[in-house]
Write a structure and sequence with these properties.
Elements: E1 4-9, E2 18-23, E3 27-33, E4 36-38, E5 44-52, E6 61-66, E7 70-71, E8 75-77, E9 83-89, E10 94-102, E11 105-115, H1 118-134, H2 143-165, H3 180-194, H4 196-199
Parallel strand pairs: 4-11
Antiparallel strand pairs: 1-2, 3-5, 5-9, 6-8, 6-10, 7-9, 10-11
């Protein structure tokens, strides 16, 4: 329904009917997309809020909260279509509940699952090993030297990937914000390939 609905009430005392205008209480809905993301702060999801029968003339300010995770904003304003969007970043592992409410609006909530980031860790490890092999340190004459070189490469990859997750890009060129496990693999491989040369500009002398 719209924000106002006109109805006709017919009764024994008013057989011709009486016209009335009723205001409809807006109905709020909240959806998290996707509802299942990797934990440890490695992925984000969109929180979509919509209100049916919202009155565009009034202040449609929403308050958002969550039991687990970090919202990009705790307040949002419905647009003319009655919609609002924020994002939520995972935190730890478990299930969080995202809730939204506003003046004159029925509250709504939705769950989001934060799962253990097996795919992320796998992509980072494979990328680190691939980058380490590209460094051609396999020419080391002893197994110990080769293992040490690969260990340094994997550790460098882990640091570079971790910094990228925090928003610090050390690879030297722009990367897409969303690329899934392929992006993690590429960043890890570059971190292992160039090693401490990437980390040096980030560390004060």
């Amino acid at each position: 329904p719209e924000a106002e609905v006109e109805v006709t009430v017919v009764s024994s005392v008013a057989p011709a009917g009486e016209r009335m205008v009723l205001r409809v209480r807006p109905s709020l809905s909240l959806t998290v997309t996707p509802p299942r993301i990797q934990g440890w702060g490695l992925e984000t999801a969109d929180v979509l809020v919509s209100a049916q029968a919202a009155d565009g003339a009034r202040d449609n300010m929403l308050q958002l909260s969550t039991t687990m995770g970090r919202l990009s904003a705790t307040e949002a304003t419905l647009d003319k279509g009655g919609n609002a969007r924020v994002s939520i970043r995972s935190e730890s592992v478990g299930t969080g509940k995202v809730s939204g409410r506003g003046a004159g609006l029925d509250g709504a909530s939705a769950n989001v699952d934060y799962v253990f980031p097996w795919r992320f860790l796998g992509a980072a490890l494979v990328g680190g090993v691939a980058g380490g092999l590209l460094r051609k340190r396999s020419r080391s004459k002893t197994a110990g030297a080769f293992a040490k070189s690969m260990g340094i490469a994997v550790l460098s990859a882990a640091i570079v990937v971790g910094l990228y997750v925090l928003g610090i890009n050390l690879v030297g060129f722009a990367l897409p914000a969303h690329g899934g496990e392929v992006l993690v693999f590429v960043v890890a491989a570059l971190g292992a390939l160039y090693g401490t040369r990437l980390l040096a500009p980030a560390v004060p002398a």
